[in-house]
Design a protein that fits this description.
With 129 residues, this protein is mostly beta strands. Helix content is 12%, strand content 47%. It comes from Microbaculum marinum.
Length: 129
C-alpha cells in the first residue's frame, strides 16, 4: 500500500511539475515574399485577421510556457488565400510550432509564413501588404 501510494504521489508530482500553458493575446509571425526576397515580422491579435500578400492569417490561440521551462511556443491558426478572382480559399488550418518552423509552416508558391513567438503586448500590429 505504501509503495502504491508513493508511486501515485510521484506520478501526480510529475504531472504538476509540467508548467501550465500561458495563453497570450498576440501571435508573432514571420513571412517571406519569395518574389522580392523580403522577410517581414508582424503581430496578430488572437481571433483577428491580418493580410500578408495574398494570405489572410487568423490565429485562434497562442501558447507559451514560463521562462523557467523549456520553450514550447505554439499557435492554432487558419490561413486563407485570396485568389486572383477574389475568392477566399482555406489553405491551412492547424498548429504551428515556433521551435520547429518547418514542421507546420505555411508553404505557398509565393509566400512562406511561420510562427516566431507569442506575446502579451505589441507596439505594432499587422502588416501593410
Amino acid at each position: 500500500m505504501a509503495v502504491a501510494l508513493s508511486a501515485a504521489v510521484l506520478i501526480l508530482a510529475a504531472g504538476a511539475a509540467r508548467a501550465e500553458k500561458i495563453s497570450n493575446p498576440i501571435a508573432e509571425f514571420a513571412g517571406l515574399d519569395k518574389i522580392t526576397g523580403q522577410i517581414r515580422t508582424f503581430d496578430v491579435r488572437i481571433d483577428e485577421t491580418v493580410q500578408f500578400g495574398a494570405l489572410q492569417l487568423t490565429p485562434r490561440v497562442c501558447y507559451s510556457r514560463p521562462p523557467t521551462e523549456p520553450p514550447q511556443t505554439t499557435t492554432f491558426v487558419e490561413v486563407d488565400e485570396v485568389t486572383l478572382d477574389r475568392k477566399i480559399q482555406r489553405i491551412f488550418t492547424g498548429w504551428m510550432f515556433a521551435d520547429s518552423p518547418g514542421l507546420n509552416a505555411v508553404d505557398h508558391p509565393i509566400y512562406d509564413v511561420w510562427l516566431t513567438n507569442c506575446k502579451t503586448s505589441s507596439e505594432e500590429l499587422g502588416v501593410g501588404n
